[in-house]
From TrEMBL:
A GO BP entry: defense response
Protein name, per record: glucan endo-1,3-beta-D-glucosidase
Enzyme Commission number(s): 3.2.1.39
Keywords tagged on the record: Disulfide bond, Glycosidase, Hydrolase, Plant defense, Signal
Signal peptide: 1-22
Catalytic reaction list: Hydrolysis of (1->3)-beta-D-glucosidic linkages in (1->3)-beta-D-glucans
Domain of life (superkingdom): Eukaryota
SMART domains assigned: X8
Domain annotation X8: ranges: 362-447
Gene Ontology MF term list: glucan endo-1,3-beta-D-glucosidase activity
Length: 492
């Protein structure tokens, strides 16, 4: 007779298996728009864009039916106007689960329920029923035997954090301490994530010039604009990471750990009113392109390098019936008639790809005589819409030179050129770049096309691997082998 296998060991193995998986990028679909495409057409759009994770603001039954047997992971929502009823009655919560989850699972791959949206800051009169609603819904999931497949949480606003910078001293608004403690305990007990609507656009606009636009858009910062946490000396190259770390530290300040952060909404408006100058198509494209790349490279944040937060981009369609300024109606990457506002890839646009042998020994570098302002503009384009892999020119990485924009731009230009030349990409950048056969590689900063210090063929356009990336891959490999070994022991 084989020895009894401890349940704790099995659960640990399950958690380890989940830990080695990478973060994902999904998208939100709202319900405040005119002329919404049919559910079938929306699912066709999701498939075309290779979107595998979707957040529904509500629990639209036509969408849940259309999503059946697609494999797309679905987050359904309990709207704010239903929260009071669900939080005041176990039977109402059970009825909600039966009608909106159990009736569609497992054909429709529902994995999360978002209970309300920014309840504590938007409808504080319902605050006292938030945790009971979570608990009642969890009990209903248990009764339906869906508690292992479906997790429950509630999206919170950035406004829940009293002072988000520096991230190391961030705390939640003490007004909500009692409810927040109960909420975090629920997440801890059920293995759920802390849902956060992380919108650097609001942080940038609300900062009124305190932070540069480049910081909000994931763009390279000038040497005199570097931002660091004075308590930890950690550098923050973008506002998104600072928001995530502020959230982790706020959770830790409540004496909770081990609760992952899941970003349920992040995006940028493409249009604004006369006083909303930063709401443009270019900025929206830059933000969302860089966000996709940042999440999918699994680099984590400065204080959480091993914990990359999966993210739902806000949003697929413009909610043109939403009240408020023009920007509030203009977050979608598509119009409600299914035409595109701007083209956004949901795949890792910065992955390593083979280069043409004809480009070996050829390099696209910055023209040192070009104005620095022009180089900066071209650099931002290369690292944003151009989809160059610019991780190696971030602070602390091998090709970072804070006072040498020519060197930094050269790396980005060259990476772009080697990635795209076969499909028509050029080394122009509006006259700020040129082709050379002189290898600009130096030290551990290896340019695409270089034969490398040891004479081996460069062969890819990825550039050097950062220490964090190496550590992440090494740990994933180590954990995978450990899981396999222990599983083998358990089945013997």
């Amino acid at each position: 007779m084989s020895p009894k296998r401890p349940q704790g060991v099995v659960m640990l193995l399950m958690l380890m298996v989940f830990d080695v998986s990478g973060a994902f990028v999904g998208i939100t679909i709202g319900n405040d728009m005119s002329n919404l495409p049919s559910a079938t057409d929306i699912v066709a759009i999701l498939k075309e864009k290779k979107i595998q994770h979707v957040r529904l603001i509500d629990s639209d039954h036509q969408m849940l039916t259309a999503l059946a047997n697609t494999g797309i992971e679905v987050m359904v929502g309990v709207p704010n106007d239903q929260l009071l009823r669900v939080g005041q009655s176990r039977s109402t919560a059970a009825d909600w689960i039966n009608k909106n989850v159990a009736a569609y699972a497992p054909a429709t791959n529902i994995t999360y329920i978002a209970v309300g949206d920014e309840v504590l800051t938007n409808i504080p009169n319902a605050a006292l029923v938030l945790v009971p609603a979570l608990q009642f819904l969890q009990s209903a999931l248990l009764a339906a035997n869906l508690n292992n497949q479906v997790k429950i949480s509630s999206p919170q606003s950035m406004d829940m954090i009293s002072k988000a910078f520096p991230p190391s001293t961030a705390t939640f608004n003490s007004t909500w301490n009692t409810i927040m403690s109960q909420y975090l305990q629920f997440l801890k007990d059920t293995g759920s994530s802390f849902m956060l609507n992380a919108q650097p656009y609001y942080g940038y606009v609300g900062g009124q010039g305190v932070f540069p636009l480049e910081y909000a858009l994931f763009r390279s910062l000038s040497p005199n604009s570097q931002i660091s946490d004075p308590n930890t000396n950690l550098f923050y190259t973008n506002m998104f990471d600072a928001i995530i770390d502020a959230t982790y530290n706020s959770i830790q300040a409540m004496n909770f750990t081990g609760i992952p952060v899941l970003v349920t909404a992040s995006g940028w408006p493409w249009r604004g009113g006369p006083n909303e100058k930063s709401a443009t198509v270019d900025n929206a494209l830059a933000y969302n392109t860089n966000l996709v790349r940042h999440v999918l490279n699994n680099s984590g944040t400065p204080s959480q390098p091993m914990n990359q937060s999966s993210t739902y981009i806000f949003e697929l369609f413009n909610d043109d019936r939403r009240s408020g300024p023009v920007s509030e109606k203009s977050w979608g990457i598509m119009f409600s008639n299914a035409t595109t506002v701007y083209s956004l890839s949901f795949e890792d646009v910065a992955t390593t790809i083979p280069e043409s042998p004809a480009l070996r020994g050829m390099f696209c570098v910055a023209n040192s005589s070009a104005p620095h302002s022009a180089l900066k503009h071209s650099l931002d384009w290369a690292c944003g819409p151009g989809s160059a892999n610019c991780s190696a020119i971030q602070p602390g990485q091998p090709c970072y030179e804070s006072d040498n924009i020519v060197a930094v731009a050269s790396y980005a230009f060259n990476d772009y050129y080697h990635r795209t030349q076969a499909s028509g990409g050029t080394c122009s950048f509006n006259g700020t770049a040129m082709i050379t056969s002189t290898d600009p590689s130096h030290g551990s900063c290896i340019f695409a096309g270089s034969t490398g210090a040891n004479g081996s063929d460069g062969g890819t356009a990825s550039g050097p691997v950062s220490p964090d990336s190496f550590a992440s891959k090494s740990q994933s490999c180590w954990l995978t082998h450990l899981v396999a070994a222990v599983l083998l022991i358990l089945v013997m």
